[in-house]
Design a protein that fits this description.
Helix content is 44%, strand content 17%. By secondary structure, it is α/β, with parallel strands linked by helices. The structure holds nicotinamide-adenine-dinucleotide.
Length: 252
């Protein structure tokens, strides 16, 4: 088992990629803190993991709220005694709205969930991980929208570019001079529940996406394997990297 005895906090772990990462980490021996805003779905994931012999606890945590983030991080310590892996996975989309049509509310919401949440969680986690002899690992689930201009609206693309910048800064400071490695994943299209939130795509934003072509669709479990690699010792010298997992979408 690649994560035996390690403790992982995963945000947005009640659905999609977060859920797949939680299941795979538990299978690989990790103690998992399943954090999300969807209480019922949290219970489902925790029950599934524990009934398969894994170790998991759920915590209701909105990554936007500092007190929730603190509680989520403390849950790892109080339940399992350490925090070795943080996966900043929770994220939301923006209907591909281009900058001319972005409301302040949409912009602020996307930045809060996709960028400020991961920052708050990383800040709390690093202050624990740096004090541990074994350090820790931070994995940020970004997007190809964090590398290219048209895979989301202005707010989504800017927030994911920001998340990749945050990843590199953590890597170049704590990964180089401290004990915490950080890397990002940039998935292309993945079959999750996030698609259901694209309720009224912007015509202009969608035209720009169409011009880039549509992505092949991954299973969430395929991205979870990348998150396992980045959490495990298999990637011990990988730091500050962004691993694209898009089935070749952006190679075209
Ligand atoms: N699905 C894709 O095609 C795709 C592609 C690239 C990147 N991503 C990114 O992957 C990540 C996971 O998305 P997914 O596709 O699995 O989506 P999903 O909607 O299936 O799951 C996201 C989970 O995050 C939770 N969440 C939302 N806001 C939250 C908050 N404020 N605090 C805590 N939890 C919150 C939701 O309740 C949900 O359980 C996101 O960051 C997303 O931007 C998705």
């Amino acid at each position: 088992m690649k994560l035996a005895g390690k403790t992982a906090v995963i945000t947005g772990a009640a659905s999609g990629m977060g859920k797949a990462i939680a299941q795979l980490y538990a299978k690989e021996g990790a103690n998992v803190v399943v954090a999300d805003i969807n209480n019922e779905a949290i219970d489902g994931v925790v029950n599934e993991i524990t009934s398969n012999g894994g170790k998991a606890v759920g915590v209701l945590a909105n990554v936007v709220k500092q007190e929730d983030v603190d509680n989520m991080i403390n849950t790892a310590i109080t339940s399992f005694g350490s925090l070795d892996i943080l996966v900043n996975n929770a994220g939301i989309m923006d209907n591909f709205v281009p900058v001319g049509d972005v409301s302040d509310e949409l912009w602020d919401r996307l930045m809060a969930v996709n960028l400020t949440g991961p920052f708050k969680a990383a800040r709390s986690a690093i202050n624990i991980m740096e004090k541990q002899e074994t350090g820790g690992v931070i994995i940020n689930n970004a997007s190809v929208g964090g590398l290219f201009g048209t895979r989301g609206g202005a707010a989504y693309v800017a927030s994911k570019h920001g998340l990749i910048g945050l990843t590199k800064n953590i890597a170049a400071t704590y990964g180089t001079f401290g004990k915490v490695r950080a890397n990002a994943i940039a998935p292309g299209g993945v079959k999750t529940n996030i698609g259901a939130t694209i309720t009224a795509p912007s015509e202009l934003g969608f035209k720009a996406l169409e011009a880039a072509g549509f992505s092949p669709m991954a299973e969430a479990s395929q991205i979870a394997q990348v998150a396992l690699f980045l959490a495990s010792e298999d990637s011990s010298f990988v730091n500050g990297d962004v691993i694209k997992a898009d089935g070749g979408w952006t190679a075209r």
